[in-house]
User: Fold these one by one.
Assistant:
Number 1:
Amino acid sequence: MPLVQELTAKERCENWFLAYGLFWISCFAVIIACGIYENMNKWHYLLVTGGLAAPLCLQPFFLPSLTGEKDLPLLERHCTKANVWIAIYSFLGTSTSFFCVQVCVMAYCTAFLETFSISAFPYYTFDDRQQMYTVGSAFYALYLAVSFPMFARLDWKPGTGCCLLVALW
């Protein structure tokens, strides 16, 4: 019996997304820190964001071995399901109850930190900064509170013991 248990495809996919997430966050940090955004128009933004999204979207097609899913059909791969979920949720979030306390706290912290981090961006203005940090973050946290557990539920098998997922199932 091996001492280290082999990662599941879901875990490998999440590790890939996390590692790549650090890369694209670093790219945006450079764009903002160097003021590159000052010279960008909508086509530049589309090129940057599309270019950064492409590896995540194309990985299930061209490099399924990265997540250990090369022997699975495309629609059964966790990375494909994750990409579809993120696309749907992103679309709904840009175009248009009860959860456990940890998810809500994590969602609120994420929302607050995102709101706080963009407050220095010179093109965002707030009439009431305090209200934006508190109330605005709370409403954004509701969006994240739904997203976090639903994403975790992809490829979840009943009987694995996660109480949050059992409650959602």
Number 2:
Amino acid sequence: MGVFMKLKSLVAAAAFIAAGASAQAAALSFSPVGGGLKADLSGIGDTSFTFTLSSDYLFSSSVAGVQITIPGLFDTGAPISSVSLNGTAFSLASSSTASGPVISTTYTYSLLNYPLSAGSYTLDVKATGAFGGVATLAPVPEPESLALAVAGLGVAGFVARRRKSA
């Protein structure tokens, strides 16, 4: 009876791991924050996040996962192997800290101020473990707004120069 229970537990654990390792899909839901939009990213295993834009934005995102190692005893392995947005790969940075025999390595994938036009996008995270992060969208300034700002600076400079010479 004890062997049957152990076998049953092993089969259940294997099924749970297989279910977690399969690819998942999720729609990103952006919420207003400041002058832009923000969405939280989290998951376990390969996950694809989809979203659609109705206008132009600057996209920034950071996704991180942690590897835990105890040399000679335990190693979770790198939790994330790649992150991409419609095929554009994010850059990788990693940092390690040690606390006694435990080594913690954080892998962070980032893509900053990437211009996006109106359309549909897929953010793919290839992972074997848990990860978390955030995606933000900042509106792209209209050319008229930039021209008005430059004109305003020009007027302010002209006024300052006249006051200085008078």
